[in-house]
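Weekly sync notes, structure subgroup
Attendees: PM, AL, DS (notes)

Item 1: joint prediction request from the bench team. They want all two components modeled as one assembly rather than separately. Inputs as received:
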Amino acid sequence: MKPSASSSTRHTRRALFAGGGAALACALLFPGRSAHATMTLLNVSYDPTRELYRDINSLFQEHWTSEHPQMPLSALTSNGGSGAQARAVLEGAPADVVSLGLSRDIDILADYGLLPHDWQKRLPYNSTPFSSRIIFLVRKGNPKNIRDWDDLVRDDVKVITPNPKTPGGARWNYMAAWGWALQQPGGSDASAQAYMKKLFAHVPVLDAGARGATNSFVQRGLGDVLLAWENEALLAARDLGPDKFDIVTPSVTIIAEPPVALIDRNVKAHGTQEAAQAYLDFLFMPQAQAIGAKHYFRPADPAVAAQFKETFPYVPTFDIASLGGWKAVHKKHFASGGLFDQIISQ
Amino acid sequence: MSNGRTKGLPGLSLAVMSWMIVILILIIPPILIFAEALHSGFVAAIQNLLMPDALMAIRLTLFITVIAVSINAICGTLSAWALSKYRFPGRALLISLIELPISVSPVVSGLIWLLLFGAQGWWGDFLIRHNITIAFAWPGILLATLFVTFPYVARTLLPLMEQQGRDTEEAAALLGAGFWHILLHITLPEARWALVSGILLTTARAMGEFGAVSVISGHIPGMTETMPLHIETLYNSYQSVAAFSMAALLAMMAMGTVGVRALLEARSHSTSGVVSDLT
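Output from the run, pasted for the record:
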């Protein structure tokens, strides 16, 4: 049995060696937050804010460190579709703060008790540090002479807009058109519905998301006009193709309000209440407001907005509250068998 | 091969076609990835990999891979052993169940963990009450990776162990060897090349898993993003060079793993003549 015994110790030693190596590797690589590590603050956000919050996060870290030199902090942002991000927070994603595409996505979190129902009243400007408008992006020189919402249903015009059934930014486009139609002389639900039916007959493809629709228009060259958030349209018109696109502001449009909120349940668990509140307050301060404007979001602070009035011309607007708020709007338009289903099925 | 001369043409055209397909879909894409990564120079590519979020993604990927491979190497070996050396009711069903993770869509493999451990899931309340985080943290990512990579070790070992038969083990048992002794000194040494091959396959798969991990990770850069997820985030933020640098690194890690596996396989053929069956 001697050879077996020696091979036994060899094998055992080798196994111990491998096991020890693996354990050592794990200890070195362990990704948890160590006790002395900086505090992390997570902002769970919707899709088109990547560049905006990257800049704001680094500025906020400086701001926080100057006031709390003993408490280093790192602010992180995760991005995704607004509805999907809300869903992730609901399932336990450790968001200290959310910044989503529409208030309904945060209302759902309130329904599950993650924050109080009156969350939108806790911060100034309806908890919306940066807003946008739904406007038109057209080909350079506006060859189809598109000026207002009624031009969109002319025979020779093809409209690109994402599917409003997909939760998120696309619903603002739909509600902007609906709101304009209601405001026309003699406007009623019936006349607005008739307009919407004509409008969607002019949409050749219903992309699932806002980025997809922008790509259809910008890269694939589909359609004559893209209904878009002003920030995305300005990005396309100024940064992606200054010689390819023009922006047209209609006679009236909706204020797209992507709100922010503190997730009470999570900050209590993480012990980040103070930092999260400071982060949200910071969004309304002039320096953060100016960063928003640089990324083509309209600052809520009128003084900062005035500095950027070249970028953001005045447009008459209405808001979602004037149409009954997202809860009522969702039930009436986007629930199964609602108005939108009727509009595209007929 | 004597036929090859007379009917040379079909053989030749087949070879040309296979090479064209291989070049088109297997060789060109990695070359493009490397070209794109080095687009702004080698230094820029390295700098991108040293960004804090990128370093965290690399660290997390290695951590998950080391644990997932260790656990699956042990569990896979034990299950292959039990399934090949014993006959019991439900054995055939178990063998096909082992392959389930290969056939199930990765999205589903991620969602099941969310259904169990998400805040609204079956164990949600319990986990919150006891302050345990699984979903949207590394334990969730580990579970998803474990599930997806479970079959590889077991499936590579199973055919080989079945072929081995039980004679040597029974002889050892008669001589008084215990369970662990038999496993470690009789069964495994004979199957070691297959085991190593399975481990390397698991490694490659664990590093690269996207779908299942994506569902349960929450995509938080600097916290829960593994390398494949971070590549997507970088790409969506128009940081092409950074995205492709990370992609090139991941590709190199995977190719390295597969290369080691091929090398060992060639060696195992020449030394022991064991033919390892691949999944």
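Discussion: Confidence is low (pLDDT under 50) at residues 272-279 of chain B.
Action: AL to compare against the crosslinking data before next sync.
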